[in-house]
Amino acid sequence: MSGTARKVVQKALPRFRRLPTLFPNFDLRLLPLSEESAKQLETEGWCKEAVFRTRPNASKQEIRGILEGVYGLNVASVHTINYEGKKKEGRSGPYRRVDWKKAHVTFKKPE
């Protein structure tokens, strides 16, 4: 096939590319919904706010990117709080639980 014929065929045929598959290595756990959010989820099918637990070095932009890119949610705002791990006393002596971050995420109303 000549060069010009190849260009014509490439323009005529749509390019089917695989969509990128995201496998985020990102720990983002949903904490139990508040009574108000759970009630709204039952009646309207969506909730305005959810709370997530994640690693302490996660940024607001990373949390927003994961929720929008991987899960397809419309995020309005993200507010975060860092928590220090609790100090506990065990049989073998004192130990400390891991630090974590709580993220309050507000969603836009789906269209």
UniProtKB/TrEMBL annotation:
<dbReference type="GO" id="GO:0005762">
    <property type="term" value="C:mitochondrial large ribosomal subunit"/>
</dbReference>
<keyword id="KW-0687">Ribonucleoprotein</keyword>
<dbReference type="Pfam" id="PF00276">
    <property type="entry name" value="Ribosomal_L23"/>
</dbReference>
<dbReference type="InterPro" id="IPR012678">
    <property type="entry name" value="Ribosomal_uL23/eL15/eS24_sf"/>
</dbReference>
<keyword id="KW-0689">Ribosomal protein</keyword>
<dbReference type="GO" id="GO:0032543">
    <property type="term" value="P:mitochondrial translation"/>
</dbReference>
<dbReference type="InterPro" id="IPR013025">
    <property type="entry name" value="Ribosomal_uL23-like"/>
</dbReference>
<dbReference type="GO" id="GO:0003735">
    <property type="term" value="F:structural constituent of ribosome"/>
</dbReference>
<protein>
    <recommendedName>
        <fullName>Large ribosomal subunit protein uL23c</fullName>
    </recommendedName>
</protein>
<dbReference type="InterPro" id="IPR012677">
    <property type="entry name" value="Nucleotide-bd_a/b_plait_sf"/>
</dbReference>
<comment type="similarity">
    <text>Belongs to the universal ribosomal protein uL23 family.</text>
</comment>
